[in-house]
Amino acid sequence: MKFVTNENGKTHTTFRGNDTFQGYKGILHGGIITTLLDATMTHCLFDQGVVALTGDLRVRFLHPIPCNSIINLQAQIITTKKALYVVKAEAICQKKVMAWAEAKFAKIAKKSNKKIRNGSTTK
Description:
The protein is an alpha+beta fold. It has a single domain (4-112), classed as Thiol Ester Dehydrase, Chain A, CATH 3.10.129.10. The chain is 20% helix and 42% strand. The protein has helices at residues 30-46, 110-117; strands spanning 4-5, 11-16, 52-61, 70-81, 84-93, 96-107. A 6-stranded antiparallel β-sheet has the order 1-2-4-5-6-3, with helices on one face. The radius of gyration is 15 Å and the shape is elongated.
């Protein structure tokens, strides 16, 4: 997935679902939707130069998303207070918000940034 952040700080990406990600018959699994929302919020922070970890995540599923849908995802930072960021994301299909999430992210120490951005989990 490619994440793009516009001049207003809103991050966008697109995901095409398929039957591999099915929960109930024909419906995209809620865990996949949650992962997509969280990833979009994380990249929203990355694009602002912030490396942070999800500390609290609330998801609202408004409508079922069919498996083979094209999902437009967007995220934006809502508030910042010291090392705590509140970010909101939406999953949109056919111009309708199908699910949204709001999360609190905790900024991590600079010496840990490189390991996390590069996918390293060793010390």
